[in-house]
Structures are given as C-alpha cells and as structure tokens.
Amino acid sequence: MKNYTSTISIIFILAFITSCDNSITSNSVDCTEIITYNNLKGDCSETLNHQNEVYFNTDGDLRIITSNNIPDHFVGLFGEGAGSLNPNQIKPQDNRYEIDLSPEKNDNSISLLNNGPAYSFGILFNGIELDPIAAEPWPHTKPITSNHNWDWNLEATNAGLGLDCNNAHVQPNGKYHYHGIPENYLRNIASNITEMLLLGYAADGFPIYYQYGYINSELSLLNSSYVLKSGNRSGDGIDHPCGIYNGVYTADYEYIEGSGDLDECNGYEGFSPEYPNGTYYYVLTDAYPGIPRCFKGIPSQDFRIGN
To answer: Is there a contact between 90 and 177 (Cβ–Cβ < 8 Å)?
Structure first.
C-alpha cells in the first residue's frame, strides 16, 4: 500500500473494533486493554496541488495572521483509498487569526481540553495550527455523549490515530493540523537544531520555541516536567480504562513541579534573540507533552475549536 505499511493499518483498525465488553463483565476482575500503544506514523512523500499562502502582519495591539492551511512540506497519503490512514483530503482554508501583541501571563492556566477539545494551541510560521488534543474520550464509541469520560482522552501521538510522519492529519473539513512535533517543518528549517528557534505564536500571543532556551545565560535543552506514571491504571475496563500506564492516554502522564525545567504549560520565562528583555514563552519538546496543553495568557477566540 502506497506510503504506509499494512502493519500500521491493521493495528489501527483492530484497536478500535476490539471492546472490553466482549471479554469482561462488571463483576469481572480481569481487564483487557482495548487500545494498545502505537506511535508508528505513516510516510510523507505526497505533494499538494496548492501553494502555501500565509501572511503575518500587525495592526495596533494585534498580530494578524491569514493562512490557506496548505503545508509547505511533504505530507502523508490522505483521502479515501488503500494505504491511507486518514479518510480526509487536505483542502485550502480561509483562516484569519487575531492574537495579542502584548500578552500578559496569569497565575492560573487555561486548558486546551474542557469537556472536549476547547482550543488549538497556536500557529506556526507556515500557517498550520498546533492542535494536540484528540476528540477521543473513553470509551471510544461514537457518537460522543455526556456519558463519555474526558478524563481519559487518547493521546494522539501514541494511540495510532492515523498520523503522518509530521504527527499530523486532516479534519473532515480538510484542515491539516499537527498533533505533535512537526518533523518535516523543522527539517526544512535546519538539519540539526541546536539553538533557540522561534516557530510561531500561541493563541494567547506568547512566542513558541523548540527545545532550547537560556538558563542563567547558558543555552540549554529545556526539559518537560511531565513524567509517565508507574504501575497500572485503576480502571476496570468499563467505566475507566485498565492496563499499564503506557502513554496511550494523556492521563497516563503527570506534572511534577521541578522534575524538569518547564512549567505545567511547557513554558519558561527568560530572554531570547527576539525578546532580549525577556518574555514568557512556550517550548515544544520531543518528550510529552510535545505541544503544550494549556495557556498562561488569554487565548484568542479565533483558535477555539468549532469557531
């Protein structure tokens, strides 16, 4: 099958058609996982028939961004047909965003997940949104109702949700978006990134960097403060998932203050080449969460899911 291995497709299909209800009852002490860890991604060798169009401008206190949502790099095979893990075709969009040029950091954070995906996180300079939250709450049945448990939402990059090598896929309306680190986008910038690299802006206006920042004036690799929990989930496979904490669910991870360099929103405060007087900024990390899952400022409503 073009660009994708049959193994990935089989794992993806089996993961979603298998049910705990087939192997256990409410009185059973046995528990069978219905989703297994699968962070395999499809290849990226497809080109698009549309050119990338994105513009960054300022107007008063606002940063204005317009984008047609066409990526500037190779993508995976999307659309109906053999070999595709995602049935939706990439289509040009007509997106416009207004974000604060002078954001203010708050003591309390705002989550991207609020009884469902509430916001995408931000946008890169190529005009593609960072949108890490999957709409896959427990128990992974459709349609999603008020009985679904959003505390146990699938982690898109580890649960085989049909991503290409850029950790991206396509919404039903044709909108391409990143769930994790945008590999080809970074590769187009530099083959080996070893410095602070401004990638774009979060919905609240704070800048987004990749991996590096300055600690006590020394350039350092900034580490996430999230860790994978140890042991087994307490669920019975009916009301909550069971099995070992393995990263399939976002709740498999926990934030431990001081275990890394970054705060709960994967952010840090300091100076950068673009902000020599200092600023709060977010960091994309190879380790979880990859893309931050909360804001320290007030997000623009242009990034609200379903807007």
So the answer is: no
Q: How do residues 146-178 score in pLDDT, each as one tens digit? A: 999 999 999 999 998 889 999 999 999 999 999
Rg of the chain in Å (alpha carbons): 20
Q: Would you say 209 and 266 are in contact if contact means Cβ atoms under 8 Å apart?
A: no
Contact 287, 224 (CB under 8 A): yes
Taking Cα atoms as reference points, which of 160, 157, 116 lies closest to residue 4?
Answer: 160
Whole-angstrom CA distances from 307 to 8, 95, 97, 120 are: 33, 11, 11, 11
- pTM, entire model: 0.88
| Helix residue ranges, H only, the chain | 6-17, 183-189
Spell out the domain ranges in the chain: 1-307
Tokens in use for 136?
């896959």
pLDDT band at 284 (very low <50, low <70, confident <90, very high): very high
Task: Please give the Cα distance from 48 to 171 (Å, whole number).
Answer: 16
CB distance 302 to 98 below 8 Å: yes
> What gap in Å lies between CA 125 and CA 166, rounded to an integer?
15
